[in-house]
Amino acid sequence: MLVQAFWLLFFYLLGLGVSLLIGGIIPGSVLGMVLLFIALALGWLKAERVSRIAELLIDNMVLFFLPAAVGLVTSVGLISANLVAILVAAAVSTVLIVAAVAVTQQRMEIRKRKRKIKAAGHETR
Fold first, then answer.
1. Average pLDDT in the chain
2. Which of 33, 45, 50, 65 is deepest in the core (most CB within 10 A)?
3. What are the entry keywords (predicted)?
């Protein structure tokens, strides 16, 4: 489990380093997750190398959100003063995410159909 934690920490720190190099435009933790995803997708890192620690973190995710929830409770005045802006931002970002997912799904379906057609063409020869 310690080796698995090392890999997560490695990609987190790698993301922080890249974030510093690009001027902090994207948070290091986000870049670390993207780099970890790329390493997993390309097979540079096997999922088994991080699966147990990932399951442990997911199983205890509620504990990681407690400090954020407490922070929200202590900021009720600030939140209520900016409620309209927060709701507009949440609605707009939700619509943008749904649109991005829809476009991505459509493109993946088109690519899948093209591959099937291409594979069927090779089988008939």
1. 92
2. 50
3. Cell membrane, Membrane, Transmembrane, Transmembrane helix
Kindly list the distances between the CA atom of residue 72 and the CA atoms of 68, 75, 94, in Å, as whole numbers in the listed order: 6, 5, 21
Q: Distance (Å, rounded) from C-alpha 53 to C-alpha 59?
A: 10
* Over residues 42-55, mean pLDDT: 92
Domain ranges of the chain: 1-59, 72-125
> Using CA of residue 91, residue 93, residue 99, residue 102, what is the dihedral sign?
negative
Encoded amino acid at 27, one letter: P
| Residue 18: count of CB within 10 angstroms of its CB | 15
Q: How far is residue 32's CA from residue 39's CA, in Å, rounded to a whole number?
A: 10
CA distance 49 to 40: 10
Q: Which residues contact 59 (CB under 8 A, 6 or more apart)?
A: none
